[in-house]
Amino acid sequence: MLRYVLIRLVGLAGVLLVVSIVTFLLMHSIPGGPFDEGQMPLSEETRAAIARKYNLDKPLHEQYLSYMGAALRLDFGIPFQSPGETVTELIGRTWLVTAHLGMMTIALAIIVGLPLGIIAGVKQNTWIDYLATVFSLFGFITPHFVIAIGLILVFSNVLGWLPTGGWDEPRQWIMPTLAYAAAPSAIIARFTRASVVEVINADFVRTARAKGLGEPAVLLGHVLKNALIPMLTIAGPLVADLVTGSFFVETIFRVPGLGKYFTTSIFGRDYPMIMACTLLWAALIAFAFLITDILYSVVDPRITLGREKT
Amino acid sequence: MKSTGQGDTSSGFLGRRATRRDLLRGSLVGLGAVSLTTTIGCSAEPPAAPSKQATAPAAPAATAKLVNSNGKEMPADAAVLDKQVVHVFGRDSKYYDIGYSQYDSTWPQETMFESLGRLTKDHVAVPGAAERWESSDGKVWRFFLRKSAKWSDGTPVTAHDFVFSYLRRLSPKTAYDFLWFYTDIKGAKDFSSGKIDDPSKVGLRALDDYTFEMETETPIPYWPLIVSFRTSSPCPKHIVEKVGNEWSTNVATLIGNGPYKADKWEKGKRLELVLNPGYDGPHKGYLERFIKPFGEWQAFFPAYEAGENEAIIDIAVLSAGDIARVLSDPKLSKEVHKYVDFLTWYLFFQVKKPPFDNIKVRQAFSHAIDRGALCNTVLKDQGVPAYSMLPPGFPGYQGDALKGIQNFDLAQAKRLLAEAGYPDGKGFPTVEMWLRNAQTAVKMAAESIQGMYKENLGVNIVIKNQEQKIYMDAMRKYEIPMSLISYQYDYVDPSNMLGGVWHSMPTGGRHDWQNATFDNLVDEAKGLMDAKKRTDLYQEAERVLVTDVGGVMVWHPIMYQMWKPYIRGESISANKAGVEAWTVGNNPVPYIYIAKQ
């Protein structure tokens, strides 16, 4: 197991290296730069001076090597969008908020999605199942900015119960979490339902019932335990996705998080932030998959990792 | 640090709280001690003090006048000082140092700093940091600074600060993105390109601590407008030298000379300004606190309706749907302020290449747009037809006189296109019409124009909506075949919207259209001190521009801003043209207050 994890970690370093090269080349191949040309295109001289200011006048491979050299020392540069701090400080400050929102979202998605999926699975093909299906379909297909605007309209503008945005007090957490959790709740509900339906008709469940176990014991001890294995497959990437935030949710609710930087960095040609955000996301996804794989073997003893299989 | 009765400190970033109560206490200390600073105006009239006009005659004699924490007497209808707080949503800023980067510094930068002059709502320069100024030839300008002026850390504001600030703008090390605005300063071009590195060769001099002299290459009659614009605000030399270029990214070192100073700057959340107690100039503010919660424009209108912000001043925040709803809503329609902006949407072409190198093609295109229909349908309530580059109300405007040159005339359009060799559009290549990160209204207008060209000329246009930076990159290289684009004024003089936009390289060069007559006319007009002759030349130049179809002028947009009815003030009331606008460049904040509800 340890050997397996080590090999995967080495692989992860390779993945990050490739991601960094591809990202670096891609971002420098788009026209424009970290200067803003508003009304007037800038003169050649001013553009050259700005390039010098941001160390963009050197050949690309030199820029890449000096970036990676610094990055290995955990110096990710200064964000062009917020020159008063380092990339690390900016990510530290904003990711805390985004991770907070992401965790609340995951919690809500599980609280809503799991029971919904179980009920739908257990009461398969009844009106309860159909209602749960409609609910989760709605949550899944409605873009979260539509839900966000709807929530603001109802709770802020009509009822006046909640502020439209901001991130100073718990009241302001409610709507972003609701809007953000709709889709993952739906995904969890659908996956849970499918697993439950599959397991509930399995032989070992029938055996459990035949042994005279009560319905709650059957559900918790036999159905759910086994139905949750497929959930692991989606949980990893879902968590990685949620804790990196959403451009729309953060923008509409004025959440000072990291999510919007994934987008604004690209529009602003904020090269240090593009690199940092991309590497962060790649590392998170890779870690999520690694942890998922390890958890598989914990939850299901039949699954073995790496060479041990042979 | 100047000591005040409020126990204020310059390190307001850490632990400064409950200022409203402090401020109220401060106001009681200052009760009755009102003095209106008078200045010797050197151009037109300074803004009228609304307090004088608004004083209620029936007020009981015993009622003490309300004075705010900076000793300014509040208007008679003003609410208590506790209520003198305004929230206006906007984007966070990279810097508040507009002399380092114009595009990365956002409002309310202009309230924290004071340029030599300030622009009124009628676009006239009145004294700011300079008490007065003089010039005998329009080339050498002498600015006499207010000797009592202090930076918000107590250091005196001197002419050396201004020399330093302007030199810093011009320095190649700064790589200033608004450099073109200052290249009329003597030696500026050579200094900024590194050809000379001796600052004494640049036309910027401190004659003594309080006399600042500027020299321009040619006479510039509108120079006070340039030095009064918000981008011309000074930076504190002593701070910049100590802290470096990042001084304005942190509230602890964000030292200004304006009526307000930064109190809190929570990155990603909000900026809060309070009255600068050390400010003793002519533009003392009424509001005790000005708060800018950060957000993107999608958040502004819902928050305005929920009462979380009191004004929407950023343009294009309200969508066409919002505007329709606002105009038909009995309450909201009273809070909306609309005006035709000094901005022109026009089509330009790659005139060095076929088919647009042919003047007849360009003329045909100028006659084939039904601007009236466009403004009555897709741009309903959002634009007025344009036949000139200069917008209505702008100095030199002659839209009505030029109307016949690019008017909608189907027969003539068809005839011209046939004469150019494309009868009924036959043989005319499919042309791309680029848009720059266009939002709904502009995209719809572009599609409407596309339809008119197809229907009226039989010409196929493909619309390409490009991301901002990709667009600007291609624009600089003159690679855009045809495009619908806008230009908004920087300063209220025809040299800006005519010379700046349409003069060929090296002084303008936004487009590859080139016309020697036009260039000569605007070159000659620019430095003329004779106002009448100057306007005549600009009008002649504009006639050349529309006749030679440098661009097809399409519409001047109608702008919408909203503010709550209890926000009042001289600076946002109607100007001479009847326009009520919250023009950031004119820094209206010091003249705004909250009225009793």
Please provide a brief summary of the model.
The complex is a heterodimer of chains A (310) and B (597). By secondary structure, chain A is mainly alpha-helical. Chain A is 72% helix and 0% strand.
Structure description:
The complex is a heterodimer of chains A (310) and B (597). Chain A is mainly alpha-helical and 310 residues long. Chain A has helices at 2-29, 44-53, 60-72, 87-122, 127-141, 144-158, 174-200, 203-210, 215-227, 229-242, 247-252, 259-267, 271-299. Chain A has a domain at 97-272: MetI-like fold, CATH 1.10.3720. In chain A, α1 packs antiparallel against α13 (271-299) and α12 packs antiparallel against α13 (271-299). The two termini of chain A are 14 Å apart. The mean pLDDT of chain A is 87. With 597 residues, chain B is of the alpha+beta class. Among the domains of chain B are: 109-243, Dipeptide-binding Protein, Domain 1 (Dipeptide-binding Protein, domain 1, Alpha-Beta Complex); 343-558, Dipeptide-binding Protein, Domain 3 (Dipeptide-binding Protein, domain 3). In chain B, the strands form six sheets. In chain B, strands 11, 12, 13, 14, 17 and 18 form a six-stranded antiparallel sheet that branches. In chain B, strands 1-10-9-8 form a four-stranded mixed sheet, with no helix packed on it. Chain B is globular and about 75 Å long. The relative contact order of chain B is 0.14. At the A-B interface, α2, α4 and α6 of A face α8 and α15 of B.
